[in-house]
Design brief:
Largest sheet: 2 strands, parallel
Structural class: little secondary structure
Helix content: 10-25%
Strand order of the largest sheet: 1-2
């Protein structure tokens, strides 16, 4: 997935991050203008992420 940053991104929400296809900004927004939407995330991955025991690595690459 790829998306863009914005100088107005503040990402101040203590728990949530949102990756958006739109340009909407709020304290949960991590990236805008993304090429994927939440309905394109595999259901198996979503089910795993709902478990408190699930651990993973989220990598943000800045280019």
């Amino acid at each position: 997935m790829s998306g863009n940053g914005n100088q107005d991104l503040i990402l101040e929400h203590p728990h949530d991050i949102v990756i958006r296809k739109s340009k909407f900004l709020c304290p949960r927004t991590l990236a805008i203008n993304c090429d994927k939407a939440s309905n394109e995330i595999p259901r198996k991955m979503i089910k795993m992420l709902q478990s408190p025991q699930t651990r993973g690595l989220f990598v943000i690459e800045v280019t």
